[in-house]
Amino acid sequence: MQVIETLAQGLKRELKVVIPAKDMEARMNERLAEVKDRVRINGFRPGKVPVAHLKKVYGKSIMADLVNEIVRDKPTEILTERGEKSATQPEIAMTEDEAEANKILNAEADLEFTVAYEVIPKFELKDVSGIKVVREVVDVAEDEVNEQILRIAESARTYESKKGKAANGDRVTIDYLGKVDGVAFDGGKDEDAELVLGSNRFIPGFEEQLVGVKAGDEKTITVTFPADYPAANLAGKEATFDITVKDVAAAAALEINDELATKLGLESADKLKEIVRGQIESQYGSVTRQKVKRQILDQLDELYQFETPERLVDAEFENIWRQINTDLEQAGKTFADEETTEEEARAEYRKLAERRVRLGLVLSEIGEKAGVQVSDDEMQRSLFEQLRQFPGQEKQILDYFKNTPGAAASLRAPLFEEKVVDHLLSEISVTDKSVSKEELMADDEEAEDKPAAKKAPAKKKAAAKAEAVEGEEAASPKKKAPAKKKAADESAE
């Protein structure tokens, strides 16, 4: 076998591999000898079939199998012998000429194919002891724990019917019928609907007009649907609602005690506080972790500058660019709205893709040298988390990870990266700094997932993306659910 390097430009390599026809024929004859005693051909006793006849019957199919095996396995062997690692799956090219291919299968022509790839760049790992990071730590106050518990407890709050007028915070039970231009519309009717006044669950103006009503009252109110209301036939329209008030109930006081804990499925108030405190600390810890990781990546980015494989950068850029355009489309914006142009944005995100690829290679090398491993148990837990997020789709997800090349690697990669970060934290200087919740949660324009000095177009905070229409009929007077608060303020399940 001959291996001829035909291209060595930067990280790009191209090899021409030639296996003489006589060598291919010799391999084919070895295979024929192996199957000679096993094949059954009419007119011949077992093991007595002439090799020439076997070759005539099975030669081409055996040669085709040999070609496939060689093309599949040889590139890896060749790269190993050369001491190179390919950044992506090497591209294999063979003759497309049918006559030439037939000659190869008949051992009348040499097997030739090319292997094109980009090598993983070689670089020396640098001393990381000079890296210094500040780890922001929030001390969770008792008041914050109690506030969170009370928000959670709203779902367990009880109400008691009262006489007199409804006030904000009271729950009213109503029947209503909505009309536009005097005609009832689909989804605008409900009976025994319960609404806590001041909760802002319904469209603007609806709840406010129910303050002061009493059980037994009948009232018609007028409201205007928001211009961005999901039901297009109602968006921006003025509507009337005929309302019958069936009950007015006052909210019972919420107290953090064992009784409340029992309603929430726990044995004591102390246990409830322990769990909620742990959730808040975990939420803050997640933000702290991301900020620390960003500091590490920024300093590693300054330490390492080397050429990155173009194909890896292309793939990373396409992922970023697809997300950016999706964000713009969902926000109804253009690059001009973000005070940039598509060309400028492409250049910025190309730099970001190069940074991500470079840092990925650095972290991979650090992890390999440190002996970082991802265990089977960790992979199983990660897969279980994927299944938990998509109930009802477990089989499809399992089939995807079982049958899709590279799918398992997509589970392993983030686990490996976090373990490398843990390793780095044991090697670098870490200084803890007490900060307020507001300081910790402050938006960082220099986030790792944004190009330097430029905020990602149409990127919103996670909280702003969390808006969702409540699970009611689209034409109900109920409005969109309020945007979820930051992670530290979200109610615990």
UniProtKB/TrEMBL annotation:
Classification via PROSITE patterns: FKBP_PPIASE
InterPro entries assigned to the protein according to its UniProt record, in alphabetical order: PPIase_dom_sf, PPIase_FKBP_dom, Trig_fac, Trigger_fac_C, Trigger_fac_C_sf, Trigger_fac_ribosome-bd_bac, Trigger_fac_ribosome-bd_sf, Trigger_fact/SurA_dom_sf
One Pfam family this sequence matches: Trigger_C
Principal localisation: cytoplasm
Gene Ontology CC, one term: cytoplasm
The enzyme's E.C. designation: 5.2.1.8
Residues covered by region (Disordered): 432-493
An example Gene Ontology biological process: 'de novo' cotranslational protein folding
Keywords of the record: Cell cycle, Cell division, Chaperone, Cytoplasm, Isomerase, Rotamase
Catalysis performed (reactions): [protein]-peptidylproline (omega=180) = [protein]-peptidylproline (omega=0)
Subcellular location: Cytoplasm
Source domain of life: Bacteria
GO molecular function, one term: ribosome binding
Main enzyme class: isomerase
Signal sequence coordinates: none
Listed NCBIfam families: tig
UniProt similarity note: Belongs to the FKBP-type PPIase family. Tig subfamily.
PANTHER family for the chain: TRIGGER FACTOR CHAPERONE AND PEPTIDYL-PROLYL CIS/TRANS ISOMERASE, TRIGGER FACTOR-LIKE PROTEIN TIG, CHLOROPLASTIC
Function: Involved in protein export. Acts as a chaperone by maintaining the newly synthesized protein in an open conformation. Functions as a peptidyl-prolyl cis-trans isomerase.
HAMAP family: Trigger_factor_Tig
Entry text on domains: Consists of 3 domains; the N-terminus binds the ribosome, the middle domain has PPIase activity, while the C-terminus has intrinsic chaperone activity on its own.
Protein name in UniProt: Trigger factor
Organism listed in the record: Sinorhizobium mexicanum
